[in-house]
Backbone:
């Protein structure tokens, strides 16, 4: 939703259509926990203390304990040929939510379908203040590898496809976990409809829409930097300013950490290669060694080192897929958060613009009344009333988006804590398993070394 | 009664002084004990304090110290190589030059990057580098010491005049570093030596099967050892890099926890601690692999090279012997200078047979030493790997228990 150029009425229409969401809100109140806090008109200033998230987490678990949805993305297949080649994925959904037609179903989707889904969700929900999980990035290099590769060159293109498959899966699950987005009709269609989806041509980098997106992004960046908001509620303003700063800090730190983990992955992969080279060298040494038991021990050493190499590789992959990708996902999520904060700024600008127009019209009306032109004066009155309504709507929109963002941020924080804890624990358990494997290998080798006579 | 405890402390003191002493030291014969009691690192040079304790009458004092630099060790080695009498022995390989270039480079890079990291991170990395530098330093001391000990324990070498001078003479041996011409000359000499050896091995077929087999074995073995040493070195270096990369991750986690005001703060701090401890263990794995694996391979690579040299000297001796035989025949045919030729032939024959006997002994000894050293170091390596892996598992178990409680 990049266009700000249209006059307010159009947005109002769109908004009215979105009123359905409130109904959906009520429907999915079982999962949408914050109903208690929002309470229609949002009683009282929202404090967002650190107590609140804990409360919500337990409520969340209690109320949606028996609702679950799990999406898997699997079986990547290369279809088509040459420049038109693409990869199709099987998307399998398992759920017990009554809103879906079946409990278990699957469809075939291609990458641009995922991007198209994301675009639709952004169109519908960004203006309301929802944080929309970002879709995996396009990759020209990756796709070219796919298009160019034949059966023989599986290697790096297979790696790329696997990375993409995993990130698509995480994307869908994150979206499905959202109380509102997870039951959105477009999302459901994406998961359920066993038909090819209309090709989302707007997602292509080189399309007309793509170029427009680029332009708008540039313009918006400038906008973001320069615009300072002067809100009526100082507490609110402070909350948003603080949050913006926090998000910036989080972004910086996550990026740094991500870079460090990437370095670890690289070094470990290299270590695996060098260990393998050493293992081969030790094997050759063992072949040429004339003393029998030493020769055997050396060949056992070579075998141990080969196993260690495999371990190093596995560990490096875990470093990457567990830790690295978690960090990357959150960096992208922060991008989505920044987008929604920016959307709020636009809504504010829109409201202020209406206010300015209203003031102009009032001045005009006053002038016309003084100069004694009654018909024009009437026209001006009508316009003043119109703009008054627009100002009211503008304010309402601004209030709503502010409330929604706070709600979404709360949910984001809860999930962030949960995710980080779960994934880091998983990573450490993984690390431990590998060390235990190492113990087994060296324990097997020790008697061989002692047996050298 | 008062002397008793004193005596025992003196004995204990001796045994505890150098835990890293090589296994080649003969503990039963204390008539000549050499060790490096101190070492100083100055800019480019390392100054070793060589400490000798002896009961041999040839020395002027029973205990004394001298300061020697690396070049003087090399000088000593070269003298041994030159002496004809020792041709039948494996000359212990000279210790490698102290090499702090890598450490120095890393330290410099760290200094350049100081602005980009937090104070804690910088201090941690500096500590790591200092530990690395210290480890390299200890290693070079150990290698110089092993060289001297082998000489001191060898029944023939220990009586060598140059060795005595090296140990006793308290002035500089005036062994200046080789200038460019000499270095070049040195290269040329070793090049011609290698081609010599190549030619010899190609043309002079050994009469003795044992030696022929040994020669072929050693050529192969040395090549493979060289390769294995290089690969082991690269592997352990990269392993150290992996350990060091944990530092940045740990720092990043600490910074993340600082800006966090949720549950995650304590959680992330604990994880950062875990990474820090894991790094230390991982770093020790890398340095133990270096010590037990790479260094053993490296040492025997040099020793096998020394053994090869012995074989070539013997082949040269054989060539001389065959020459002497031919000369004798010629002399007999011409009936001129027969007696001189006979004498020469006899000398050459004696020399060759001596060399062969001695050489065989040396080679057998080499094999025994090598097998014993590999056994000890491989066992040590496996035990250390196990120890560290178990420590990691324990660390991670404890961390996970603490983290899951949060």
Residues:
């Amino acid at each position: 939703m990049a266009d700000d150029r249209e006059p307010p009425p159009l947005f109002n229409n769109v908004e009215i259509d979105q009123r359905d969401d409130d109904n959906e809100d009520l429907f999915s109140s079982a999962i949408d926990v914050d109903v208690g806090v929002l309470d229609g008109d949002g009683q009282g200033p929202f404090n967002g203390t650190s107590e609140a998230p804990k409360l919500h987490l337990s409520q969340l678990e209690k109320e949606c304990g028996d609702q679950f949805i799990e999406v898997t993305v699997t079986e990547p297949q290369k279809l088509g040929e040459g420049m038109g080649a693409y990869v199709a994925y099987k998307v399998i959904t398992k759920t017990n939510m009554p809103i879906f037609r079946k409990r278990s179903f699957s469809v075939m989707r291609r990458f641009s379908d995922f991007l198209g889904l994301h675009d639709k969700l952004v169109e519908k929900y960004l203006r309301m203040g929802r944080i929309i999980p970002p879709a995996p990035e396009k990759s020209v290099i990756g796709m070219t590898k796919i298009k160019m590769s034949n059966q023989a060159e599986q290697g790096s293109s297979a790696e790329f496809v696997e990375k993409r498959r995993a990130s698509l899966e995480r994307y869908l699950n994150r979206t499905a976990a959202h109380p509102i987005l997870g039951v959105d009709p477009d999302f459901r269609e994406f998961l359920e409809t066993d038909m090819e989806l209309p090709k989302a041509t707007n997602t292509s980098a080189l399309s007309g829409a793509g170029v427009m997106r680029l332009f708008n992004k540039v313009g918006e960046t400038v906008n973001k930097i320069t615009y300072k908001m002067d809100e009526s509620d100082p507490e609110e303003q402070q909350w948003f300013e603080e949050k913006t700063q926090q998000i910036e800090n989080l972004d910086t730190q996550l990026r740094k950490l991500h870079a460090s983990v990437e370095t670890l992955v690289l070094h470990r992969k290299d270590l695996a290669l060098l260990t393998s080279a050493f293992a081969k060298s030790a094997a050759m040494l063992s072949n040429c060694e004339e003393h029998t038991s030493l020769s055997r021990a050396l060949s056992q050493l070579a075998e141990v080192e080969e196993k260690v190499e495999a371990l190093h590789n596995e560990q490096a992959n875990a470093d990457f897929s567990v830790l690295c990708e978690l960090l990357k996902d959150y960096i992208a999520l922060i991008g989505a958060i920044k987008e929604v904060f920016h959307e709020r700024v636009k809504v504010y600008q829109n409201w202020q613009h209406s206010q300015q127009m209203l003031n102009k019209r009032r001045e005009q009306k006053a002038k016309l009344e003084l100069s004694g032109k009654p018909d024009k004066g009437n026209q001006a009155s009508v316009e003043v009333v119109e703009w008054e309504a627009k100002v009211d709507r503008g304010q309402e929109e601004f209030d709503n988006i502010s409330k929604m963002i706070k709600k979404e941020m709360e949910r984001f924080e809860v999930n962030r804590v949960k995710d980080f804890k779960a994934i880091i624990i998983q990573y450490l358990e993984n690390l431990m398993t590998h060390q235990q494997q190492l113990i087994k290998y060296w324990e097997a080798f020790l008697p061989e070394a002692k047996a050298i006579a | 009664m008062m002397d008793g405890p004193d005596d025992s402390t003196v004995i204990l003191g001796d045994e505890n002084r150098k835990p890293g002493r090589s296994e080649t030291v003969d503990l039963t014969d204390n008539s000549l004990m050499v060790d490096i009691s101190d070492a100083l690192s100055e800019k480019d040079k390392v100054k070793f304090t060589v400490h000798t304790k002896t009961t041999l009458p040839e020395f002027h004092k029973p205990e004394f110290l001298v300061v020697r630099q690396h070049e003087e060790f090399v000088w000593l080695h070269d003298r041994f190589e030159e002496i004809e009498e020792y041709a039948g022995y494996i000359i212990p390989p000279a210790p490698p030059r102290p090499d702090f270039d890598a450490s120095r480079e890393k330290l410099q890079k760290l200094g350049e990057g100081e602005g980009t990291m937090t104070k804690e991170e910088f201090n941690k990395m500096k500590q790591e580098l200092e530990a690395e530098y210290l480890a390299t330093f200890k290693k070079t001391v150990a290698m110089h010491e092993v060289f001297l000990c082998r000489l001191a324990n060898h029944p023939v070498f220990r009586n060598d005049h140059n060795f005595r001078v090296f140990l006793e003479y308290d002035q500089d041996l005036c062994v200046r570093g080789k200038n460019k011409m000499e270095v070049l000359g040195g290269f040329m000499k070793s090049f011609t030596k290698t081609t010599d050896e190549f030619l010899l091995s190609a043309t002079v077929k050994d009469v003795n099967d044992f030696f022929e087999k040994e020669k072929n074995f050693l050529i192969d073995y040395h090549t493979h050892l060289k390769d294995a040493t290089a690969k082991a070195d690269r592997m352990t270096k990269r392993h150290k890099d992996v350990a060091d990369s944990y530092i940045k991750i740990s720092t990043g986690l600490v910074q993340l926890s600082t800006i966090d005001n949720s549950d995650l703060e304590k959680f992330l701090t604990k994880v950062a601690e875990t990474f820090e401890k894991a790094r230390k263990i991982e770093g020790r794995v890398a340095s133990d692999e270096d010590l037990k694996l790479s260094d053993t391979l490296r040492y025997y690579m040099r020793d096998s090279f020394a053994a090869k040299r012995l074989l070539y000297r013997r082949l040269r001796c054989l060539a001389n012997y065959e020459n002497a035989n031919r000369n004798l025949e010629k002399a007999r045919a011409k009936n001129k200078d027969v007696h001189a030729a006979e004498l020469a032939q006899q000398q050459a024959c004696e020399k060759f047979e001596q060399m062969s006997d001695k050489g065989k002994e040396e080679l057998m000894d080499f094999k025994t030493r090598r097998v014993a050293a590999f056994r000890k170091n491989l066992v040590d390596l496996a035990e250390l790997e196990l120890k560290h892996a178990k420590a990691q598992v324990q660390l991670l178990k404890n961390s996970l228990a603490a983290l899951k409680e949060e």
Remarks:
- Residues 264-334 of chain B form the longest helix (71 residues).
- The domain at 215-405 of chain B is CATH 1.20.1270.60 (Substrate Binding Domain Of Dnak; Chain:A; Domain 2).
- The beta strands of chain B are 32-42, 45-54, 63-69.
- The two ends of chain B are 62 Å apart (CA to CA).
